[in-house]
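Hypothesis: this fold can be encoded by more than one sequence.
Test: take the structure tokens below, design a sequence, compare later.
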């Protein structure tokens, strides 16, 4: 379900609580190499801290959504500048946001079966409870919110 509305070497800024909060991964400017691996590893570690009993499907969905957002930033901008994760244990919601320097918003596009690329936002649309984007300076932040069972 798509609900496009705004919500509010790499360095890491962890939250002050192991059970809830915010974590941020900053990426070096103009260096998209390795961002997807760093970002998905970072997402998996944060989820393990926040939800140590999360099932394999939940962990895979979080990693997949983070990977798709980061891949889009790597492929359509000069790479991501930040990956932000916000977790609310009371709501069970995980908000994943990737910021880059390219202003054009993501879009769901029609993809022919023989095309090897172009399905990332469809994957996010299927997995996430909501997703969208907001302008951020000269670029944008693309986000997705997942319900964690």
């Amino acid at each position: 379900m798509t609900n496009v509305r705004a919500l509010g070497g790499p360095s890491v800024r962890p939250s002050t609580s192991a059970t809830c909060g915010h974590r941020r991964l900053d990426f070096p400017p103009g260096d998209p190499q390795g961002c997807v691996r760093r970002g998905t590893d970072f997402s998996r570690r944060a989820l393990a801290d926040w939800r140590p009993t999360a099932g394999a499907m939940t962990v895979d969905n979080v990693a997949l959504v983070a990977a798709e957002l980061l891949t889009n930033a790597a492929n359509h901008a000069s790479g991501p500048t930040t990956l932000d994760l916000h977790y609310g244990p009371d709501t069970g919601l995980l908000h994943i946001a990737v910021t880059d320097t390219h202003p054009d918003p993501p879009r769901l596009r029609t993809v022919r079966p023989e095309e090897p690329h172009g399905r990332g936002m469809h994957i996010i649309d299927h997995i996430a409870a909501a997703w969208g984007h907001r302008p951020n300076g000269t670029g944008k932040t693309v986000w997705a919110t997942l319900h964690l069972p």
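Residues 56-76 form the longest helix (21 residues). Confidence is low (pLDDT under 50) at residues 1-18.
Hypothesis status: open.
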